[in-house]
Specification:
543 residues; four-stranded mixed beta sheet
């Protein structure tokens, strides 16, 4: 690895504009954005994917490898990624820094505590929770109805036993009430951090967080509790973008980390906007398939931040195609052209989805060593027949050199000026209509049903004047439907909305579909069992 000041110098960032976290990590001072704000923006490229297998399809890997490839062919490029959560790291997926010859470094630091951003979000979130219960204990001057409190506590770990708890038990410990935990990356504080332009914007958004309601039905906010100042103080460094590097020395902004199945799934606006001023091209990613991360990238992040994406890369794998075509997980390494062809319907739907936003697409086949030449040729033929450009990506094995063909095809898309980005719906539409447009147009569903609680929450949001917010859908990442077992391209299905939460600070509504949880659980054999540290302090088993 190069000293981080050398990576910064590649972007014309001076050493006194860095805040060091060791030799290889740094935060970028806010003054840099002020200095470069009049410079023209580079091109913005989104990397998304088809519905994945449980192991993932290499979207982060492709983002990193593509950024390296673009730099190899002379395009000044920055990769803009989310920060990993300890939940998946200790759970089923492992780390989120790429692998092979397409990684962001230092991998161990980024996957673990990094610069402390996720811990700061956790602390700010839990400070507000503590101030709510303290307010109740000391007389409840705001007349908060405890049964309406929606603000949970947070931790950055999968722990199903904390989904529903009772707080305040024991003499002198407050008022007993039902509560719970969510994972930090699902916190509204994380969403606010990632959508804020600067520290002042951050605090103003925090002040608008609704924690519950008074007995008269009026909302109570973090500002009402006078918690916004202290919460912003805890986040004053977390708002600054983090600068690291790829294994080939390409600059990477790794900042913010909301999940895409239960949150909006995009890295920070502050990091993306700064990267666009410093590079000719910014390659970013949004979590899971295009039905989740990409839809939220286009309908929430780009809309709110005034960003205009120029192109999208959809990552596909032979394994995911066969998985969506009916092959069992145990059969994914065996050649199966029939399942592959059946599974192409899923990829085709994601291609159509991105094109509905007016953004041109190229498919990247992330190659695995188990893929046969016949299978790779079949995928290429299917993509070509569908009218979309396709390139093989071998960045895991070859780094940037393995992504040059993809990079050159992408440059052709960027130079064509073919992007005519627009969101899929107008925010002025009624809340239900926005949900139903997403279900019909993006998921391919036929109908939407709502629980009584969701109906009530929608009416409440509209009555309070929040009906013009965009919608952040929370649903399984494994299917276009709300059932993880309905793979491929299901049709005629109904999405059930069980709950709708108002995130007034972030500026969107969260609609929960099916059985999706905001606090995941660990699998039967979590990744944590293989992790450790050697005598020299190096991580063992982390990838």
């Amino acid at each position: 690895m190069k000293p981080i000041k050398e990576i910064a110098a590649m972007l014309d960032i001076a050493e006194d504009e860095l805040e060091y976290y060791g030799k290889f990590k740094a935060k970028i001072a806010p003054e840099v954005m002020e200095r470069v704000k009049e410079q023209p923006d580079g091109k913005l490229v989104l990397v998304t994917s088809m519905n994945p297998t449980p192991a993932g399809e290499g979207k982060t890997l492709t983002t990193i490898g593509l950024s390296q490839a673009l730099n190899r062919i002379g395009v000044r490029t920055i990769a803009a990624l989310r920060e990993p959560s300890l939940g998946p790291c200790m759970g089923i997926k492992g780390g989120a820094t790429g692998s092979g010859q397409a990684q962001v470094m230092p991998m161990e630091d980024i996957n673990l505590h990094f610069t402390g951003d996720l811990h700061a979000v956790t602390a700010a979130h839990n400070l507000l929770a503590a101030m709510i219960d303290n307010h109740l204990y000391h007389g409840n001057a705001l007349s908060i109805n405890p049964s309406t409190i929606i603000w949970k506590r947070a931790m950055d770990m999968n722990d199903r036993s904390l989904r529903q708890i009772v707080t305040g038990l024991g003499a002198g410990n407050g008022n007993p009430r039902e509560a719970g935990f969510l994972i930090t990356v699902a916190s509204e504080v994380m969403a606010i951090l990632c959508l804020s332009e600067n520290l002042a914007d951050l605090q103003e958004r925090i002040s608008r967080i609704i924690i519950g309601y008074r007995y008269d039905g009026q909302p109570v906010t973090a500002g009402d509790l006078q918690a916004d100042g202290a919460m912003a103080l805890l986040l004053k460094d977390a708002i600054k973008p983090n600068l690291v590097q790829t294994i080939e020395g390409t600059p990477a902004f790794v900042h913010g980390g909301p999940f895409a199945n239960i949150a909006h799934g995009c890295s920070s606006v502050a990091g993306t906007k700064l990267a666009l001023k410093l590079a000719d091209c910014v390659v970013t990613e949004a979590g899971f398939g295009a039905d989740l991360g990409a839809e939220k990238f286009f309908d929430i992040k780009c809309r709110k931040a005034g960003l205009k994406p120029d192109a999208a890369v959809i990552v596909a794998t032979v394994k995911a195609l066969k998985y969506n075509g009916g092959a069992a997980l145990s059969e994914l390494s065996a050649e199966n052209l029939s399942a592959l062809k059946n599974g192409f319907a899923n990829l085709a739907k994601h291609i159509e989805n991105v094109q509905k936003f007016g953004v041109p697409v190229v498919v990247a086949i992330n190659r695995f060593f188990t893929d046969t030449e016949a299978e790779l040729a079949c995928v290429k033929e299917l993509c070509t027949a569908a009218g979309v450009q396709v390139e093989l990506s071998e960045v895991w094995e070859k780094g940037g050199a393995g992504g040059e063909a993809l990079a050159r095809t992408l440059i052709g898309l960027l130079e064509s000026g073919a992007s005519h980005y627009q969101p899929i719906y107008a925010t002025t539409l009624p809340i239900k209509e926005k949900i139903e447009i997403i279900v019909r147009e993006i998921y391919g569903g036929a109908d939407v049903t709502y629980s009584p609680a969701a109906e009530k929450a929608i009416r409440k949001a509209e009555d309070l004047g929040f009906g013009d917010f965009p919608v952040c859908m929370a649903k399984t990442q494994y299917s276009l439907s709300d059932s993880p077992k309905r793979l491929g391209r299901p049709e005629g299905f109904t999405i059930h909305i069980r709950e709708v939460n108002l995130s007034a600070g972030a500026g969107f509504l969260v609609a929960f579909a099916g059985e999706i949880m905001i606090m995941p659980g660990l699998p039967k054999v979590p990744a944590a069992v293989r992790l450790g540290v050697d005598a020299s302090g190096n991580a063992i088993g982390l990838f």
